[in-house]
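Summary for the funding panel

The consortium committed to producing paired sequence-structure records for every protein in the target list. Below we show the first two records in order, beginning with the earlier of the two.
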Amino acid sequence: MLGVSRQFLVNLLERDEIPYHMVGTHRRIYVRDLLAYKAKRDSKRRQVLDELTRAEAEEGLYDLEPPDDRAE
């Protein structure tokens, strides 16, 4: 659901970024907690991308033509 590796997920759990509980030796995550983490992560990503887009637009980077590097 998150599109991350198992080890990355384990690290998130150990840093208490996603709540979990242990059943024997296995970590269990409630889907509501997983979806809450995903929504928070996606919201942060969108905010950063919006800020980057706004900064580039203010600097006029969208108006520049890319260099023509094609060999003739």
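The next record, for a separate protein in the list, is shown here:
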Amino acid sequence: MNNTNIIGRILIIDDESINSETMMDTLEDVNYQVSLAANAQEAKSLIAKQSFDLVMMDVWMPGQDGMSLLEEWIEAGFSTPIVMMSGHAEHKDVVKAIKLGAVDFLKKPLHDILPLVRKFLSENMTRNNQQAVTGIEFDAPLKVARNIFEKEYFNHHLQENNHNIAAVAAKAGLERTTLYRKLKDLGIDKNKI
């Protein structure tokens, strides 16, 4: 799959490979990048190596169960939305998962997964956009507010593009030399680029 066409990165944690592989096939058909983990240890290893836009996790797994992993991640400040899944969950499990910080609880097998994933990702994007905008001091002079926004904008795109100046310059519609000057003016250390 071409990296530029990826519309979201999803981690599915489920020990039932038939379920996770079916979900993966459906999602990859429409350009989501999907990683699979069969248990908590595999999931932790994947999370340590890369970031995801959404985590979909089964409640019942061998070893550490999904609820305790959810609790561990939320307590550690994990900000990626987590959706819990189970084929035989009781009402108390659903309530517990939501109270712990899951964004939703789905009954397996999942039917019509694409609208659900789009909903979770668009809600997360809206939340992130609201947080980014509220980070600007609206009482500040326009130039100060613009600098705060530009600094966040360039830091975001540098991180998203593995600090590739050419890619960020193209995204921003700037010449590379102009971008270097702008980064210097904003106090973004180009030695870390």
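Regarding this second record: The radius of gyration is 20 Å. The chain has a mean pLDDT of 84.
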